[in-house]
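User: For a benchmark we're assembling, each entry needs the component sequences followed by a predicted structure for the full assembly. Here are entry 17's components. Please fill in the structure.
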Amino acid sequence: MHRLPVIEAPGFDPSSSAPLAINEALVTDWLVAFLRDEIGRRRGFERVVVGLSGGVDSSLTAYLCALALGKQNVIGIRMPYRSSSPDSLEHAQMVADALGIACRTIEITGAVDGYLAAAPDADGRRRGNVMARMRMIVLFDQSAALHALPVGTGNKTERLFGYFTWHADDSPPVNPLGDLYKTQVWALARHVGVPPVIVEKPASADLVVGQTDEDDFGITYGRADRVLYFLLKGYSVARLVAMGFDESEVALVRGKVDSTHWKRHLPTTAMLSSTSINDYYLRPVDY
Amino acid sequence: MFRIAIAQIKPRKADYPHNLERVADALEQICAMDKRPDVLALSETSLSGYFLEGGVRDAARPAETVFRDLQSAYAERCGGAGSVDVALGFYELHDGKHYNSSLYATLSTDADQAALHHVHRKFFLPTYGVFDEKRFVVRGRSIHAFDTRFGRSAMLICEDAWHSVAPAIAALRGAQVIYVLSASPGRGFGRGTVGNLAKWSFLLPGIATEHSVFVVYAGLVGFEGGKGFSGSSVIVDPFGAERVRGPATDECLLVADIDLDDVAIARASSPLLADLEAALSDVVLELEGVARAARPA
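Assistant: Structure for entry 17:
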């Protein structure tokens, strides 16, 4: 009997991040072109304000904006609360110094505590939301003062998990990172030269001392992104489990996505007429 | 989920018994595998070699004869081991004419399971340059899909797949798996890869992604009178990704798992086939107009 050498297709490896691989140079060029077009041509701004938290998302956004618009047209805004990590402030400054962009520091402690004095029962989640919304007030006001468009920094993973404060972190009109999973943000940040200390530290919303995103999620970004990739592609939960993904992690990820669709939409409006906006009266955003 | 194997072999020229033994060897090999493949695919003219010229009339067999011989080989080599489907190319004698054909059959020791499901006769016969098929075989007149235990399928033979209309018809007829059985002589050595392989390497993912189908490409290997066939059998998924690929010059047995759920997932995100179905009556009118204009006055 003549036996043929066997070449078998590689089995699926649920721990492989290969499906999430991006061409960092190409993505950088694309996002730079996007920022120039959206901010300059379409909206008529020369300058932008970026809230610098010291984290990887806002750092990468600042790097991309500097590439797109020039360092003289990017203004970083640091908005610490009294319990914010000193590292956050320091890392934000590190980015501003590395890029040579202007950086303003505007404390939000007084404004936040001023309101919270009237809400002494506010728990950590409410207090975090107040901080996030206060930062957005500051960012939009600085936008008006400086005639500089606010640029958003939210990534795809946190958008899908609803891990942001509605009408706060998500409200800037332009967002270059919103279709990049967190692990892709890390890869792109390394590519453009964001300092390693920022890329490699545990991601944190820094709304509660010692808080990390992954502790809040109950799953690492790497594992979550791999599940999200296939879920969004249309794979069923059963198929993902059959492919070797952990059943409880798939359920966790699916649950977070399914319970937060509303956060990715504008408010629900009662339709009464045949000219209801966004139901009947339809115009694209750049019309 | 099912498991598909491609036996990429070098047939001995015009030696039907020997080549049938090679297919039997491949059947025995897959029947002995721990995770046994469900389907075995082989190339165009795998029972005879490709360049036979007038020898086609000696090599050609009725499809029923080839099926019977494959059944016997399966019973002898894999007795008691359930069933396996097979797709392979051969020169066919049918209704007093010779064709370059392929068959899809279920081989089984259970007579109720064993069946010859479909015979495809090559629709586009290359007759240019090194090719001379129209002198020796008659062209087929139809492209059909057919139901199998492993999804609705269709077969195309080599140049059939170089015309975008052929896989389009197969997909419109419901195929979710298109077997492309080929004997592609290597030619064009001026660039990074052999010229015809470069063509296949964008053609096959193009077919897979346009219609969201699995493409199972079984290529002949070996030399015939100085003309080397470029092998490179490959399985492409409905997203256009290669699952497994064989070498250009050597024999091998490729194995990959296929999940037909991927067809629906791909079609949901890229509904090009549904768009074609919706516009089909206008497409037909356009083609009729072209055909009318091309008719001699």
